[in-house]
Amino acid sequence: MREYKNKNVTVTVRPAVEIGIATIFDKDVWIYTISKLQEAINNNQPISRTVCFTPYDYFITTNREIGGRTYKELEKALDRLRGTSITTNIYHSQDKQESRGFGLIDSWRMVEEKKGKLDIGMVEVTLPNWLYQAVTNTKVLQISPDYFRIRKAIDRRLYEISRKHCGKQHEWVISLELLHLKTGSTASKAEFKRSIKNLVKTNELPDYEIAYEAEKDYVIFTNRNQDSEAAQKSKLREGGKKAIYGLKKKYGF
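Above: the chain sequence. Below: its structure as tokens.
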């Protein structure tokens, strides 16, 4: 079991005892399934909570080898996603709160059919209603295909966080301490800082450059696509804020 706290909000993640907790790499199935649902929405195709895809397309998209071992790994990943449960508390006011539990997927099915000399496989993943509603009611920000080529779990998590919070803006700044908390990393702050500094050296995250400001203990994510309209507007806002700060500092008000 893992428990994460941020102020008065607690998130508890529990695994199915016999198969363990879902990993950051199991999340590839989750992300891929959501992307297939979003693709159907964008193309005005019929949609439902059950999303179908071939293992072959999943393996190619997520940069995996194709073979018997990866089929077994896919089954295990689906099992862990189905078995992992999340519980969190939601505050409506000082006098009212509720606890809510949910799973990452409701169910899955893998069908194998022989057609001539070919073995045709199909996977069906049924998403939980909360996730289905979130995807269908909100436009999902697409991730880079290179996400699936990120091999370190912590780097994947950092990309997810930067995609969520920086998005299409020019840049996003966060304290190292809060970023450490957001990742859910079990590493010490010193180890986490080393990971950040190593990533700064390689700067291999898709979509975003990363920098570390040692004096303020800040991490800065900068959008690589500075030509987007959202990035340009964000850049102007940041420039205005820095100019105002400079004037206040100069004239002491």
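Residues 213 and 219 are 6 Å apart (CA to CA).
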